[in-house]
C-alpha cells in the first residue's frame, strides 16, 4: 500500500469508531500527534510497554477490519477511477479547444466516462 503512518491513519479514519476509547486515544496520540511511547505513557499513567502493546494490538485490529470490510481499498480504487474520469474530461476540454476535433473523438471519450462511472456505481455499497 504505502508507508505505515499513512496506512494506519487511513485505516483509523475508516475504522476508528470501532475501536475502544483507550485504543482511539493511543492511536490519536501516537500517529496523529506524533507523541513518543514515553510521552503517551506519562500522559495516560501507564507503562511504555502497555502503550506499545496497545499500539500493536490496535494496528492488528485495524488491518483485520480492512481485510474483512475492504473500505480503504474501495476508497482508493474509487479515487483512481475519479482521477481517470477527470483526465478524460480534461482531454475532451482540450479537444473542444482545438479546431481539429471531430464528433467521433467525443463519442469515444464519452463512452469511456460512462464505463468508468458505471464501474464506480456498481462497486459502491
TrEMBL record:
InterPro entries: RNA_pol_sigma_r3/r4-like, UPF0122, UPF0122_fam_protein, WH-like_DNA-bd_sf
TM spans (from-to): none
Classification via Pfam families: UPF0122
Chain segments annotated as coiled-coil in the UniProt record: none
HAMAP family: UPF0122 (MF_00245)
Entry similarity comment: Belongs to the UPF0122 family.
Function: Might take part in the signal recognition particle (SRP) pathway. This is inferred from the conservation of its genetic proximity to ftsY/ffh. May be a regulatory protein.
UniProt xrefs under PANTHER family: UPF0122 PROTEIN CBO2450/CLC_2298, UPF0122 PROTEIN YLXM
The name this protein goes by in its record: UPF0122 protein SAMN02745975_00672
Organism: Geosporobacter subterraneus DSM 17957
Amino acid at each position: 500500500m504505502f508507508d505505515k503512518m499513512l496506512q494506519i491513519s487511513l485505516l483509523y479514519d475508516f475504522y476508528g469508531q470501532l475501536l475502544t476509547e483507550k485504543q482511539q486515544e493511543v492511536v490519536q496520540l501516537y500517529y496523529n500527534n506524533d507523541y513518543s511511547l514515553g510521552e503517551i505513557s506519562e500522559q495516560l499513567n501507564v507503562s511504555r510497554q502497555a502503550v506499545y502493546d496497545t499500539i500493536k494490538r490496535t494496528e492488528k485490529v485495524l488491518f483485520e477490519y480492512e481485510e474483512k470490510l475492504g473500505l480503504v481499498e474501495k476508497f482508493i480504487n474509487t479515487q483512481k477511477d475519479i482521477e481517470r474520469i477527470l483526465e478524460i474530461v480534461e482531454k475532451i476540454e482540450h479537444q473542444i479547444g482545438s479546431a481539429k476535433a471531430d464528433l467521433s473523438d467525443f463519442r469515444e471519450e464519452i463512452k469511456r466516462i460512462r464505463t468508468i462511472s458505471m464501474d464506480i456505481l456498481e462497486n459502491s455499497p
